[in-house]
Amino acid sequence: MPDAETDSLGHPRVHLRRTDSTNERARQLAIAGAPHGTVVTAEEQSAGRGRQGRSWLAPPHSALLCSFVLRDPNPLLSLIAGVAVCDVVGDAARVKWPNDVVVGSNLRKLAGTLVEGRPQAGWAVLGIGLNVAVRVEQLPAELRGRTASLELEPSAIEPIFERLLEALVTRLAEPVDTTLKALRARDALYGRDVVWGGHGPQSQSEHGSNKGERGRAQGIDDKGQLLVRREDGGTTALSAGEVHLESVG
User: Fold this and answer.
1) Which domains are seen in the chain, by residue range?
2) What are phi and psi of 243, to 5 degrees?
3) pLDDT tens digits for range 2-47
4) Helix boundaries (H) for 90-213
């Protein structure tokens, strides 16, 4: 991506005290012709969303919530964003393909990315949610074991946003091979048993299947696909859909 495009990341910025979804607001701006780099940030979302129609929940003033308008987006955008979040968080963070940043042996979710857009129109919206000041013990019981937080003060959200901007600019400008090397070093699924094409403990996949296929994650290929060694010894490259850990939801 040319320097002029990466230098514009984060400008102009629309900051909202409360909105339904930063991704939805950014989508509206993109459709209206907002320039590359436009970002929407918010202190609170009432209808934040993730992949497969899930919601993104965080108490007010506790998470970094931002969505960028990107013209001519990189096809590996979601994975690039995950690596950039890891750059900000530190060595403990890993990318759980295709769109989560996790920490700990049980892969508790610290951040998520969501890419939406209109490829035919040459734009995408990149949404990032990062738990900065969330107090995990105050979350509903069903979320505590699956959620992580930096557990900083709300005043840390803006400085972390600035660091994320810098990390995104760097990662978007570097060669894809460099990003893939960093991604593979932070691959949270490598060597773990996974299920795909069905549904895991929490949700059902887009296919509606109850059974799914099982295998062991073997890394990420040059197209950003997850490689899985099937039980029959063959290898499948997954590019979309839902993947669940056998032992971790």
Assistant:
1) 3-185 (3.30.930.10), 193-245 (2.30.30.100)
2) -125, 135
3) 454 556 899 999 999 999 999 999 999 999 999 999 999 999 988 6
4) 141-144, 157-173, 176-185
